[in-house]
Design brief:
It is a single chain. The chain is mainly β and about 80 residues long. The chain has a single domain, classed as OB fold (Dihydrolipoamide Acetyltransferase, E2P). Helix content is about 0%, strand content about 40%. The chain contains no helices and seven strands. The protein has a seven-stranded mixed β-sheet, with no helix packed on it. A hairpin with a 4-residue loop joins strand 2 and strand 3. It starts with 8 loop residues before the first strand and ends with a strand.
Length: about 80
């Protein structure tokens, strides 16, 4: 998965965590990858299947890169 600046990406998977003070919420993708999602609202429950579209960013509230949730579709 390329992570170039402003390159729009889409991932589909299941929410695994709610996140905390150091980690953004995490999604387990269909191909088994673990992806942090920035701005995933708490009303998307753990276990929900979602498709998230956005760009990868380095928010100060998360460890490492995270996909900024510009569009969220609960499937």
């Amino acid at each position: 998965m390329a992570q170039e600046a402003d390159q729009v990406e889409t991932v589909t998977g299941v929410r695994e965590t709610m996140g905390n003070a150091v980690e953004c919420p995490r999604l387990r993708t269909d191909d088994g990858r673990s992806v942090f999602i920035f701005r995933l609202p708490p009303d998307v429950a753990i276990g929900s299947r979602v498709k998230v579209t956005g760009v990868f960013v380095h928010p100060t509230t998360c460890i490492g890169p995270a996909l900024r949730a510009d569009r969220i579709d609960v499937l």
